[in-house]
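Appendix B, example 12.
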Amino acid sequence: MADTPYPHYRLQADGPNETGLTLLIQVTVGAGGPLPGLTEQSVVEELRDSLDARIGVMTQLSKNVIAATNLEA
């Protein structure tokens, strides 16, 4: 997925009889910050909780980031 921006979230919801969906979510925050009372994490978690509340649906949520570590000799 070379065109997928980082960081992004992957939300997978699996239902009965091999049904399901996968969402790739990028949350960007406005110049003045996020909406009052919300964080990027809480927005994605609310989506997950909404799907997870359905009978027979199981969800998985992951955050994908690129991190660099400076190694000093």
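The chain has a mean pLDDT of 91. The beta strands are 8-14, 20-25, 58-64.
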